[in-house]
Amino acid sequence: MPTLLVSSKGQIVLPAEMRRRLGMGAGARIEVVEESDGLKLRVVRAVETTDLSGLAGMVQAPSRGKSRRLEDFDPASLLARPRRINP
Q1: Is the pLDDT reported for residue 46 higher than 60?
Q2: Counting beta carbons within 10 angstroms of the beta carbon of residue 21, is it exposed (0 to 12), middle (13 to 18) or buried (19 or more)?
Q3: What is the pLDDT of residue 34?
Q4: How confident is the model at residue 44, as a pLDDT?
Q5: What is the per-residue pLDDT for 87?
Q6: What's the rounded Cα separation, in Å, for the pair 6 and 52?
Q7: Residues in a beta bridge with 40
Q8: What region does 79 belong to: left with phi over 0, alpha with psi -120 to 50, or beta?
Q9: Pairing status of strand 38-45 against strand 29-35
Q10: Domains of the chain by start residue, with CATH
């Protein structure tokens, strides 16, 4: 059973494994109930994590210059292109 250390400011830190298992992040709230044999901690509201993949395409950069093709980003096609020789 993990033990918690109380800091000089009265703060406690829950072990990272426990926070991950309970889905707790920054801003999560814990209710403290005093019982006859000790304290009971209960997660009131865990902060939900956001899946950033759902935000893809929301912001578009202004177009500058010539448009790019998919082939421009293919590493194999870069090897097949003739090299420029700088004078």
Answers
A1: no
A2: exposed
A3: 94
A4: 85
A5: 60
A6: 35
A7: 33
A8: alpha
A9: antiparallel
A10: 1-48 (2.10.260)
Q: What's the confidence (pLDDT) of residue 26?
A: 83
54-57 contact pairs (CB < 8 A, 24+) = none
Q: What's the rounded mean pLDDT across residues 1-25?
A: 88
**Cβ-contact 15, 2 below 8 angstroms:** yes
Residue reference for tokens 């500058």: 64
CA–CA–CA angle 10, 21, 7 (5° rounding): 10
- CA dist 20 and 2 (Å) reads 15
Q: Looking at the chain, list the stretches that DSSP marks H as alpha helix, in order from N- to C-terminal side.
A: 16-22, 75-80
Report the candidate in 62, 58, 80 with the shortest Cα–Cα distance to residue 71.
80
- Please, how many CA atoms are within 13 Å of residue 14, restricted to the half-sphere of its CB? 16
Long-range contacts of 16-21 (CB under 8 A, 24+ apart): none
Backbone angles phi, psi at 72, to 5 degrees: -65, -20
Closest CA relative to residue 39, chosen from 49, 30, 51, 26:
30
